[in-house]
Design goal:
Structural class: mainly beta
CATH class: Mainly Beta
Number of strands: 20
Shape: globular
Distance between the termini: 33 Å
Order of helices and strands: HEHEEHEEEEEEEEEEEEEEEEE
Radius of gyration: 18 Å
Helix content: under 10%
Strand content: 35-45%
CATH topology: Tachylectin-2, Chain A
Strand order of the largest sheet: 9-10-11-13-17-16-15-14
CATH architecture: 5 Propeller
């Protein structure tokens, strides 16, 4: 169930709702349709939609004690595939592995650990499962020209049925660098949307852009290339002053066609995360 901050919502409701978003040439246009709020500690790391349209939120307060004791101290943007919740976990900067946890519709959790490859960063910012539920996309922090692809734990029959080691499959090589990707989700089998926390405008004209990644083909475990387009800047609106916003998770609800992206507010308003909703209007 979504946890909202009503007091902050009352303050920020006075801020104007964006009339729409710009769209790069040849790409769909997304129009902002709604704004909601969730508390950052309990839901500011990411979100995912269930088949019935209800939302699952993830925040640092959601990390089970048993996983914390194993050293998994950060949870990223989750995904839901065929009723299974897939969470991305990481540990300390000195960790030599990252972990994906899968919780079944019956509530059973299985842990899949991926030992870091040479040069791989410890970050595990998000989990995005392909529409066929066979492949899992994730990413690292900083400047990257790739997204990582794994067989979807538990859902891909090549993975152990009760948890275990998760090897990497073929990567998505991006046609241009991206920075600080916080979350991605599939819109179609060959298109992802990804939220970037890059405010430098080094690679794209927008600060903290929502990016579109078009794949040359659907994922099949082999290397694939992706074309990156900036769609629009995620809104940075708050009753609090400052530039210390932080883009977080992104979700595309295939049932309703609703795209949602999160932004943590600056200053004392950082206790709240704004959730912007969009509907596709062209393309």
């Amino acid at each position: 169930m979504r946890r909202q901050l009503c007091t902050l919502a009352a303050v920020t409701a006075a801020l104007a709702l964006g009339a729409g978003t710009a769209s790069a040439a040849g790409t769909p246009a997304w129009t902002e349709t709604a704004t909601a709020y969730t508390d950052t500690l309990g839901g500011g790391q990411g979100l995912a939609s269930h088949a019935d349209g209800s939302l699952l939120y993830r925040g640092l307060a959601d990390i089970p004690l048993g996983l914390r004791l194993k050293g998994w101290n950060h949870v990223g943007d989750p995904d839901i595939a065929r009723g299974h919740v897939v969470d991305a976990y990481q540990g300390a900067d000195t960790a030599t592995s990252k972990m994906f946890a899968v919780t079944t519709p019956a509530g059973k959790r299985y842990e899949y650990v991926h030992p870091l490859s040479q040069g791989e960063k410890v970050n595990n910012s998000f989990a995005a499962v392909s529409p066929d539920a066979r492949w899992l996309v994730s990413g690292e922090w900083g400047e990257q020209r790739r997204l990582q692809v794994f067989p979807a734990p538990l859902l891909n029959p090549s993975t152990p049925a009760t948890g275990g080691t998760l090897p990497e499959a073929g990567q998505i090589t991006l046609d241009r660098p991206v920075r600080d990707i916080q979350g991605c989700d599939f819109v179609t089998a060959t298109r992802l949307v990804c939220a970037s926390n890059d405010a430098t405008r080094t690679h794209f004209p927008e600060a903290r852009p929502l990016l579109q990644v078009d794949l040359e083909r659907a994922l099949d475990g082999a290397p694939v290339t992706g074309t990156v387009t900036s769609l629009f800047a995620v809104p940075q609106r708050s009753a609090c002053a400052g530039d210390a916003y932080e883009t977080e998770g992104v979700d595309y609800d295939t049932g309703s066609g609703t795209l949602r992206v999160q932004m943590i507010q600056p200053g004392v308003c950082a206790v709240a995360t704004t959730v912007y909703a969009y509907r596709q209007t062209g393309g």
